Amino acid sequence: MSVSRRDFVRQSAAVGVALGAGGYLAGLAGPRATAAPPLRPPGALDEESFLATCIRCMRCTDACPNHALVPMQDRDGRGGSGTPTMEPRKAACMLCATEDGDFLKCTEVCPSGALQLVRKDREDIGAKVAIGIAEIDLNLCYSYNNWSCGACFRACPLAGEAMTIGRWERPTVHPQACVGCGCCERACIRYPHAIRVMTGRA
Amino acid sequence: MKLQVIRRCVQLCVILLVCGIALLSLYAHYRSARVIHDPQLMAGMRGEIVTQAIHPWVDSLDDPQALLDGNKGTLWSMRLLGVSLTDPLAAAEMLAASKHVHWPLLASIVIPVVLTLLLGRVFCSWMCPAYVLFEIAGKLRRLLHLAEIEPADVPFSHRNKYVLLAVGLALAAAASTPIFVLIYPPAVLSRVIHAWIFGTAATAMLVILGLMVAFELFVSPRWWCRTMCPGGALYGLLGWARPVRVRLKRDLCTGCADCIPVCEAGINPITQSSSIECDNCGVCLRYCNTQALVFTIGLPDPLRRRSSKPQSGAGGKRGKRSKRGRRAAALTALALTATAAPAEGHHILGLPHYSYKENYPQRPTLEYPATTGPYDVLLTSYPGVPNPGEPANLAFYIKDRNTGRAYAEPVTLRVLQTSTFGDNTIVLPATTRSPFENEFKFYVTFPTDGEYVVELSMPVEGRIEVIPFLMIAGRPSATASMVIVGAFGSVFAFVVARAVRRKGHRTAGRRVLAEVGI
User: What is the reported pTM?
Assistant: First the structure.
C-alpha cells in the first residue's frame, strides 16, 4: 500500500493532534486535588512515582493471598485505572502472616519496582510499609461511648506497638508505629466504622 | 495447511493461559482463606470450578504453592512458571514515564525481545488475543458483504502506528503516567478476562474494545493491528532483521495475487514480505497455489523492493468448506461468551473474628459521603445494595467539621422510588428521628428492584437543607443489559437473515439467467 508523503504527514499530524487532545481532556476530567489519594500496597513508592512506575499488570492483585489488593477504577482522572488499591473494610493487608516465604508476596511479584521488596520481619515491615495510618473517631468508637469493645486491638498485628489499649478497652493508635494494614478497620464492629486507615500522603 | 492449525492452537493456548492464570489466582485466594471445603461459601459457578476442577488437580501436586506463586499477572507482564515476562512496550513506557531504570524489568523483557529479533512480529499474529478478536471482526465483515450491507474500506497509513508509538511514549514521559496500558488491546483484553473471572466490573475496558471492533467492522478492516497498534510497531521495529521470514520463490510465482486479499497485515506478500509490516502469520503460504511463498531461515537480507506487477488471474477453489467451518466456530465462540452467567459474589476473605452483632461483618456496605454547611454527612447502608422486600439498615452519621462533635438535633428522612415515566412513589413518608449513640438509624424496606432517592432534611444555619442520596435496590441494571443484549442479538439475527435471503435471491437470479440461456 503506497501513501504519498503529503498524506503521511497529514495523517501523522491528525494522529498526533487527536492524541494530544485526548491526553489534555483526560487531564481535565475530574477534580484533581479534592479526593484523597487511594491506599497503596506495602512498599509502594510515593503516589506520584507510583503512578509513573506501576505498569498495571495486576500481578500484585493476583498474588495477594487475602485478596485485599484490587485493581482500581479511575475515579478522579489521575490515570490510576488498573493500579492496585485496597479497601480494608472488605479485606485488609495481613502482612502475609499466614503465608510461607520470606517476603510480602505483592512486593515479591512486582516487576517494575513500584512496590519495593519488603522482608517479612518486624523491622523491615516497620521501616518500609506505609499504607496509611489508622484514625479513631471518638464519637463512634464504642469503647469511648459507654461500651467496651476492643475488637481493633485484638486484630492489630502490631498490637502493643502500633496500638495500645486502656481502661474500658479504649484503643490508642501510635502513628509512628502504625503501618496502615487496616486489620483494625476490618475488625471494627461499628458502622460507619469508628477506625479508618487514612493516607498520610495527601 | 498445518501451519495455520498450529497458529490457531498457539492462539488458543495463550487465551487459555491468561484465563488459567486468573483462575489459579482466584483459587489461591480461596486456598489462603482455607474455605475450599465450605459448601456454602463455594456455591456458584466460580466456586464449583475451583472445587471440582482446580482443587483436586493442584492439591495432588508435590508443591502446589510453587505453582500458585509462580503464575501471576496478565499478558502485559506475567510470571510464568516462575519466570518473569514483560511486554517490551510496557518496559518502554515505564521507562519513559518514570525516567528510572529498573533492571529486573529489563531482564524480564529479554525473552520476548530475543523471540522478536529471531521471529519478527509473531507476538501479534501467533499470541495476541486481541489479534484473534480483530480477526473475527474481519470475518464478520464478510457476513456484511453477504448481506449486501457494504462496510466502508477507508485506507489509513501503516506508518501511523510508529507515530502513535513515538507520540505515546513522549506523552507518557510528559505526563509521568503510562497511557498505552489503557488502550493497548492485549493488555485491556487480559484485564477484561481477569475481571470476568474474578467477577468484577470491566465496563470501561469493554467499551474501548467494542469501539475498536465496531470501527474495524464498519469503517476500516483490521485498522488497529495494521495502522495503529504501538505494540505492533515496536515488535515490527525489533523484528526488522529477523532471520525467519516469508520469501517468494520468483520462479514459482504465477502472479495470481491470491495472497494479497488474505494478508492479515494488509500488505502485498509478493513484493513486501520482507518489510517490517509482515507479522509472519503465514496465511499467505496457505493461499499460494504453487507454494511460491515459503518460510525461510537465513541471514537477514536488506529490504528488497520488486517492481514486478502481479497479474490478476483466476483464483482457484480455496477450501470453501473449511472457511465455513471456521466461521461456524467463530460464531459458536461468540455465542459462548454471550452466555456467561454471573455468579454470586463471595465474601470470604479477611481475618477470622468473633462477632458482636448478627450482621457482622457489615459488607457489602454502602458509604455515601456528603457535606452541607459545616457538617460532613455520611450515609451507611447494610446491606449496600438491599434486596427488595428485605429491610435495609440505613445509618446517618453527621459530624461538625470544625468542632469534631456529632450532630445531636433530630433529622427527617423520606424515601422515594424514582420512575422514568410519571411521578416518584413515596416509599417511606417523612420520619423524624433523634440520634442514638451519635447515629441516626432508619430501617427501610425497598419494595422492588429499582433506583431510589433517600432524602435527608436537617436544619443548617437557620434553614432546612435537603440532601438527596441515590440508592439502588436489587439489580435494576439486569433489565438494561438484557435490553442491550437483545438489541445486539436482533441486529445480528437481522444481518444473518438478510445475508441468507440475498444469497437466495442471487442463486435464483442466476438460475433464471441460466434458463433463458445467457
Answer: 0.74
